[in-house]
Task: structure prediction
Amino acid sequence: MKELRDKKAFICDMDGVIYHGNKLLPGVKEFVSWLREEDKKFLFLTNGSQRSPLELQQKLSRLGVEVEKEHFYTSALATAAFLAQQQPGGSVFVIGEAGLINALYNAGLTMNDVNPDYVVVGESKTYNMDMLEHAVNLVLQGAKLIGTNPDLTGPIENGISPATGALMAPIELATGNKAYYVGKPNPLMMRSALRKLESRREDTVIVGDRMDTDIISGIESEIETVLVLSGVTDEKEMRRFAYRPGYILNGVGDIPGATRPSNAKEKSMEKDGTAE
Result:
């Protein structure tokens, strides 16, 4: 574990890594304290688009962890930055929550439900048939289809919840158009994180609970990877993938040793693809 602990910067997913719903996961307080004590650079990088960095800061504060809002970066911010670069002053029809809408406004984009340049989809608690029909017809009229992230599900306290990829699927099927997803595993998200951290990829590690977003993001960006088993991917599901994480841990508390890593797997994992 020394090689992992010696990394200078840590990029951490949130859902399934830091919390489930409104429940803080074991070892998180100790992990954040360790990051500060060891003077590590760190960024909470989430594919979630519902909340702003300020709201994420306040949520962690309610859970007993104090972190400045500058340590948060979301797929909503990445999506807004991408669209502002692609078409400055462009217009969007949005299916999503306040975190996404505010990020788009702040990037200079405007709301348009008649003839927008883009249809943008993120997580939404108000997703309904009217929105779906309108989005489909706008895309058929020429609007480009953008997703904040490709996640099909996200962890919640009592199971899983449909995420952006699942909400996007009916639009893709009805229009025959494939969405462009900005969030992980898109390398755009990882490059943005490295820039915010002012860190080199060699000095950085990404910690996540999903093989299909977090781990593949790190592998394709040549950043060290840690899979924690506190979220979506378990060891059985992990074996379905053609790639492997650098480390497999129970949770983030195993990194500083805050929780007992009884089942932690390190870099000595066998080459044949089975866990130790």
Remarks:
- The chain has ten helices and 15 strands.
- The first strand starts at residue 9 and ends at 12.
- The two ends are 15 Å apart (CA to CA).
